[in-house]
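Hi Y.,

Following your request, here is the sequence exactly as I used it, all 248 residues.
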Amino acid sequence: MGQDHQGRGNSDQPVASRTEKSPTGAIVDLKIEPQTVQTQTANRLRDAILSGYFTPGQRLIEADLCEMMKVSRTSVREALRRLEAEKLITIVPNRGPSVAEITWEEAKEIYDVRAILEGEVAALLAERATAEEKREMAQALAAFVKADEADDAIGRLNTTSRFYDVMLRGCGNRIIGEMLQGLVARINFLRARSMSRPGRAKYSASEMRRILRAIEKKDAAGARAAAVEHVRNACAAAEAVFEPRRAA
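Below is the corresponding structure, written out as C-alpha cells. Let me know if you'd prefer a different format.
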C-alpha cells in the first residue's frame, strides 16, 4: 500500500522511444518513462506532509513552494492536484491549497476498515504465501527496524508499506487491494502520527513480526488475529496523538 520513492529522475523529458517488432509484426513501444519533475515534486510534498513538516490545516503558498523546491509553478500545481486526489490536501476556491485535516471520527473509521480488510489479507496469505514472499516480508521488517534505529520517519513508512505491499500482492484478492489503495495516503498519514509516539515503532515491529510468524506457519487464524491486533494497537496510539488536538 505504499508510494514509490525510488528511481526518481531529474528531467521533464521522456527518454527516446525504443521500439521492437513482435513475432506477429506489430510494433511495440518498450520505452521506460523516467519520473518527471512533477512526480518528484509530488513525492517531496507528500513526504513533507507525512513527516509533519507541513501540518494539518497549514496553507500551502504556491510561490513559496516554487522557491523552496526550485521548480516551476506548473510542477507545483500538478503536484498539488495529485495530493488533492489522495486527500492529503484540500483546495478551496479563492483560498488555495492547505494540508487536509483528518478528524478522529474519520480516522477511527479508517482503522475499523483496515482491521477487517488487513485481517482477511493476512489470513489469505497464510494459506498461500511463497518462500519468496516470506523472505520479502522479513527483509522489509528488518529494514523497518533499521529505519527506527536511525529515527528515520519516512523510512519507517516506506518499509511498512513494503511489508504490506507483499501481503496485498500475495493474498490473491485484488479487490481488497484496490479498496486499501484508495486509503493508502491517509493510512500513511495516520501511521506517521501513531509512530510519532515514543516507543510505538518498536511495538509495531513486534506486532508485524507476529503477523509474519503466523504466515510462515500457515496459521490463517493466527495471522488474522495478529493483523487485527496490530491495527487496534495502532488505532490506540493514534488516538493518544489526536487527543490533545480534540481537547484544544
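The chain has ten helices and four strands.

Thanks again,
Q.
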